[in-house]
Design goal:
Rossmann fold; 40% helix; eight-stranded parallel sheet; elongated
Length: 418
Amino acid sequence: MRIGIDASNLRSGGGLTHLSALLAHADAHEAGIEQIVVWGPRATLDRLAPQPWLVKTACPELDGSSAARISWRRRSLPELAQAECDILFAPGGLCTNRFHPVVTMSRNMLPFQWREMARYGPSRMLARLALLRFLQQRSLRTADGVIFLSQFAKQAVTRATGPLAGKTAVIPHGVAERFFKPPRPQRALSDYSAARPLRLLCTSIVDVYKHQWHVAEAVAQLRREGLPIAIEFVGDSYPQAARRLMRALRRHDPEGKFLTLAGPVDHSALPDRYYAADAFVFASSCENLPNILLEAMASGLPIACSSRGPMPEVLGTGGLYFDPLKPTEIADALRQLVTGAAVRSRLAAEAYERARHFSWTSCAQTTFQFLRDVLEANRNDGAPSARPTALGGHVRSSAESGMPTQSRGHGTHPFSDV
């Protein structure tokens, strides 16, 4: 089996992490893989570890504008795929309908939940999400196979798209081993004080569907009750949401004694951040598969979590749940977490064991088996197969394949999924 991977819109974040881990954990012999060709921007290809069966093809137009990437996907990719692979995998959620079989992924929940999109109000972001909804619906409907990351995502997305013609599978992401740390012994509430508080961590981009300002209000309420807690918010910020969080921080803790906004932290530094915390808070109302929640579970932390979306599916009985739009409910969950050392111990142990089920090895095995199933189903339907060419494992430019290249665009689209 020769696989082509369209990484044209994978530049950072969870999409790039998924692709890198998928290839790193692939067992080519067991999966029957002869070769995998990845087309993508140079920076993306540089993040992929060399493999003897991996060909990384740099396409200059993919380092350009969104228009250049869209044009490449429409005009050049089908011919490249026809020449070099049996099946095409588009993990970024957008796929060509001019090559078959093709498998794509649904990895962005925001475009499929109008209530969540509406939080942005009339804005360029809302327009981008509406465009992405249209493009992804078209991709999902025309693909020969679709991978969902959670059962919740599959149900929510197919309500928007209607029945899909291709095969479907639910294949969750894994958790990197560097995040796994066994739960620590939990201390009694009396061991904490205002000077040495129980340290809560909230790691996530500050965005309109993450509700960090409600968490800040809940923590402030508990501080007024005399509970010795503090929270650190870690992550980059969407301007509209950052302003709202900053207003909450100034209102409830103008001196910054127990509410701290740390800003973005490099992903490689996150395991130490989790390990330094005593408990974790996750207040998102819109997720496909919450990788951050998985990281906190693997880090052995007791967790208070949003009850929305796939969070109960992922965390199970390993957390205390709340409505992320209601600060009083968040405060109630945190109060139980903070005051009960035995509760913290039980939750941390359950979440940690549950995190062990999210394996990158399992993700890779299941993904490549699904690709093989889709390929075989397509062949059984009588569809013509591609006639790939033999290539060695190296990085090359698209010109080496004999395909024409387009002129390089300028600037980058701020929404990486387009």
